[in-house]
Design brief:
Layout: E1 2-4, H1 10-19, E2 24-26, H2 27-34, H3 42-49, H4 62-69, H5 73-97, E3 106-108, H6 112-115, E4 125-128, H7 131-140, H8 145-153, H9 158-164, E5 167-170, H10 175-197
Parallel strand pairs: 1-4, 2-3, 4-5
Helix pairs in contact: 2-5, 7-8
């Protein structure tokens, strides 16, 4: 399982694992699907946060809802409680589809420590970078500095995630450095999978 703070390189790392032939899944994609008009969390979010959070086609106005929940811890907790049970069940179902000779799969769960304490994985990978780099990346995405700080503050601090990780992928350096670290972990995880399967 791959986690880490916002703008610490999770998507890039997940793509690198996929390029090595590893089955991958992004929980953010599952969360987005859950709030589509026919999604399992759509009605709950609409009931809980109001029709004004949706456009005329029934699609969630993500920036508007984000502006609310990143400034209100209680609202953020309510939203997570509506969406994340569906993400967890879909993640479990995805892992159940992986069969031999697939050695292992990697799922990215950005809010693993914040919202999924009951989920168990064989190995936890954490992406990390310096706080100033994280902030700069968010601002480069178009967020104001105050909005970026709110998003960072809404998550468990990076140093705490690093302390809980089985392996850390630092993404401050060149992409080639990150690539080498992913390749190293690919070897480690492949060996773990072979050992656990007795091959």
């Amino acid at each position: 399982m791959l986690t880490g703070g916002i703008a610490t390189g999770k998507s890039y790392v997940l793509d690198r694992f996929a390029a090595l032939g590893v089955p991958t899944l992004d929980a953010d994609d599952l969360a987005r699907a859950a709030v589509l008009p026919e999604g399992p969390a759509w009605q709950g979010v609409r009931d809980g946060f109001g029709a004004e959070m949706f456009d005329e086609h029934g699609h969630l106005d993500r920036p508007r809802l984000g502006a609310l929940v990143f400034g209100d811890a209680e609202a953020r907790a309510r939203l997570n409680a509506l969406i994340h049970p569906h993400v967890r069940s879909a993640t479990t179902a995805w892992f159940d589809t992986l069969t031999a000779p697939t050695p292992f799969g990697v799922v990215a769960i950005p809010l693993f420590y914040e919202t999924s304490p009951g989920m168990m994985f064989d190995c936890v990978l954490v992406t990390a970078c310096a706080p100033e780099r994280q902030l700069a990346r968010l601002i480069a995405r178009g967020l104001s500095e105050p909005a970026a700080q709110l998003r960072i503050a809404a998550q468990l601090p990076t140093d705490e995630k690093v302390g809980r990780a089985d392996h850390v992928i630092w993404t401050d350096g060149a992409l080639t450095d990150t690539d080498r670290r992913v390749e190293e972990l690919f070897g480690i995880l492949s060996a773990m999978a072979r050992e656990s399967s007795g091959r």
